[in-house]
Amino acid sequence: MCAGVTHRPSSIFPSIPPMETPDEPKVKSPDKLNLGFPFNLPATPEAAAVRIIKNLCHFSLFYVLVLWVGLSISLVPQRKPSLLLLMATSIIGNQYLMMLQLMPKAICVRKAFDKTLVLVLMAIVTIVELFLTEAGIHLVITLGIGIPIILVHAVLWRDDLFASEEAPASVPGESAPLVDNV
Length: 182
Fold this sequence. Notes:
Layout: H1 45-58, H2 60-75, H3 80-102, H4 107-112, H5 115-132, H6 136-156
């Protein structure tokens, strides 16, 4: 406030309390912040196999997208017709999946064309067209580089990071919250 200035009380709003200056902001100390690391090694080979299966199911769309982007990037410099055919089959597959999302009760579409069958056929058509346009080596190299990276990620990624925060932190095993709310 300015020195020598006097504020008289308001007659219109007498119940409003004067403004308080906040004390120091309440920030958690860094020693109480518990961040989890998303990667660790499984205890047994059986646990590794279970983790691979769970992560492949959970991240399958992302793994396919990584392979698709890698294949697209490898086709850009030299194989433009192969890239166009890859894009065309991808658009057709996406259109089918969007149609299934937009019409969930269309029994004739779901019974006539099973989603898994359509996606497997699209994958086969893509592989055949890549080999027919002499771009099969790009597919083999992309799969040779991408699949080991995906398997390493699937083995090391902990699957308990998405567990609900309502679960108690004292549960034995890998289930611990990402951030400790103390």
